[in-house]
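Dear colleague,

Following up on Tuesday's group meeting, I ran the structure prediction for the two-component complex that the binding team flagged. I've pasted the input sequences exactly as they went in, so you can double-check that nothing got truncated or mislabelled along the way. The structure tokens for the whole assembly follow below. Feel free to forward this to whoever is handling the docking comparison.

Inputs:
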Amino acid sequence: MSEVYAARRTCLRERCNAGGSAAALVSRPANVRYLAGAAPHGAVLLLGKTEDLLVCAGPPGDRPTEGRPDELLSVRVLPGPGGDPAVAATGLAVAQGAESLAAEDHHLTVVRHRAMRSVAPRLRLTDLGQAVEQLRVVKDEEEISCLRIGAEIADQALGELLESILVGRTERHLALELERRLVDHGADGPAFPTSVGTGPHAGRRGHRPTDRRVEEGDFLSVCLGATYRGYRCEIGRTFVIGTSPADWQIELYDLVFSAQRAGREALVPGAACRDVDRAARQVLDSAGYAENLPTLTGHGVGLEIDEDPQLAPAAMGKLDACVPVTVEPGVHLPGRGGVRIDDTLVVRPEADGGPELLTITTKELLAL
Amino acid sequence: MSEVYAARRTCLRERCNAGGSAAALVSRPANVRYLAGAAPHGAVLLLGKTEDLLVCAGPPGDRPTEGRPDELLSVRVLPGPGGDPAVAATGLAVAQGAESLAAEDHHLTVVRHRAMRSVAPRLRLTDLGQAVEQLRVVKDEEEISCLRIGAEIADQALGELLESILVGRTERHLALELERRLVDHGADGPAFPTSVGTGPHAGRRGHRPTDRRVEEGDFLSVCLGATYRGYRCEIGRTFVIGTSPADWQIELYDLVFSAQRAGREALVPGAACRDVDRAARQVLDSAGYAENLPTLTGHGVGLEIDEDPQLAPAAMGKLDACVPVTVEPGVHLPGRGGVRIDDTLVVRPEADGGPELLTITTKELLAL
């Protein structure tokens, strides 16, 4: 794996050099992990003029770390507590002869930036912008395989839940049970707080589980994901409780299903992100639900659960092959509930069989 | 409750006015919640010249919110997605005639600060510093009662675990079960990721649970906490698995127990934070464990699990009455394990009976 991290750092270094900076400071934890293999609490990565350094706030024993730091990378640990690795790294950049340093202005606070400036008043601080986030958008097969395993784990956890009795149990209990099953099946942990919505809560994006119990006739929406080796996937399904769904439930489900399928089918390399969003959205719009739609119908996933690209009406940019995204349209009717269907897929060229579906739990309307 | 939030805002406003700013922008979520009753995702609080406003990123239905916004407070919701409430609030401050605005430079990123500057080039942006964090240090009885309930919940969850069979179960399972029990007993959720360490992992602060199983003869350290109405408490205990602890285990346990008691007994209004730390630390130091100690032996708790004050060798400041803190010395011997004992207490004057212990689970060395 070490070569992978070194290659990523080379790639970033080239972008920095092209932008006129010989050195870069990466502070956002997911970006540090992407380039260094691990992101100990508070650690920053310096791409220096002569050497790359992972600068850590304290001894590694003090705080456990996910991932393992790249062995090719030198590690510096600040001696005492209270030091800021970003400030220390700035000093190290100057010691290496850097005249300018590109930093992540969208992550550093004003106070940290000021402290960096004060230890190196002659250093020119520039903005690295979202350079690392942009590198992270297209995944390699190793990364995709972590997402695939995470998706399998989420599918298993969800499948087991469906075999159990649901009526009478609370949203909170169901969410906790799902999270326990994720860990049982080998996840590092949940990729995000598991959402379980019943009855009027069903179909709400990001609904936080309450003490409401599952009742006959409810819609039940579940959204969960596993983290596997740092990579986060997402699956969402909606079910009906009881033997026979009501007509309005079948109608709404079919509509959201069509929208989600339209979104999935629009996932081709080169497609504009806003066109994928529009493909899903217009199915719901034209059925009169324009007011009940979420602001986005999908997003990238990876080391974070919400990454670029966004699938939304104002999104810029196009999809590339090997970009994993969610497709997750939904309709929520206040007071009545609703439907969301959410998959994680990888954009693939048509020649390779089109989009690769990672979350394979059925999307038929199941009555449980 | 509304009067409480209004009084807190008045208090902050007076500090700002004294510092020469007629308006303040609060962006750190726990600070927003403290002053507004709730912190919807991304929301900021403007203390304006003529009106206080809670500026939210999107409609409240989109993202669930903990707490309920103070009814005395006007709420503005940004119309479209992608807007930054901090930038919008800056514009609103100018519209109210503010010439300067004090912002939380330790929370705002460089990019957000730049965007605020660009919408209001004539506005003087100053640093509010940790003014709200300082207000939060001393708690009122309502806040302490939330912490007390949280501590009861954590005690219950821990007590139930101790009644079950532990040998053969993994750290991860025990941690998940504890978190489930916290929620069962009415917690909003865990106050922080539950830590369970067995054998060589026991006694490590912040140990992340692994698949190691509990064995006869192990030390078992558990650290958990409940969030109740936003307030977070913490309890940590160490046990021995099996009928009779080894001599070294009894010795180490007694030592950490003495250190923790010394720390608790040093909690009096007016005591220097570093003296409380020293009281606990010197017991362990003089037994030869100076190398095996954590960087702090306690910290404040409240809306966040790690607040001011810090109980550490270099800490400044003194304790006031009604400040809740943890006292949590520990010794970890690499390869062998160790002991941590952690309570949440409220500093109270001697006349009121001295420090109030919120986490009442026994600190005898239990063999389970």
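The two ends of chain A are 44 Å apart (CA to CA).

Cheers,
M.
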